[in-house]
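Dear Dr. H.,

I hope your travels went smoothly. While you were away I took the liberty of generating a structure for the chain from your last submission, since the lab meeting agenda had it listed for discussion. I wanted you to have the full record in hand beforehand rather than looking at slides cold. The sequence, exactly as received, is reproduced here:
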Amino acid sequence: MKTRMKKESKLKIKKANEVIHISNRLTLLERKLFNVLLMEAYPDLLKKQKHQLSRKHLGTAVGFDSNDTKLLKQALRK
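The corresponding predicted structure, in token form, is as follows:
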């Protein structure tokens, strides 16, 4: 699976004010995951209802190098 992060490292996504302010309640890992999920889904956001990424891809994209997948899963559930 190709990552858009490599191709478009300077991709800018407009977020609503509410999304920016709510991020104060999230951990750094949760904010990174949210941003990667949004960036990966953005091109097809209006075309698809469901989007899919592998846990490995998400972990790599946010710099998560631990084998503790439980922590990653918990962050995704929030």
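Two observations you may find useful: Residues 32 and 62 are 6 Å apart (CA to CA). Residues 28-41 form the longest helix (14 residues).

With kind regards,
E. W.
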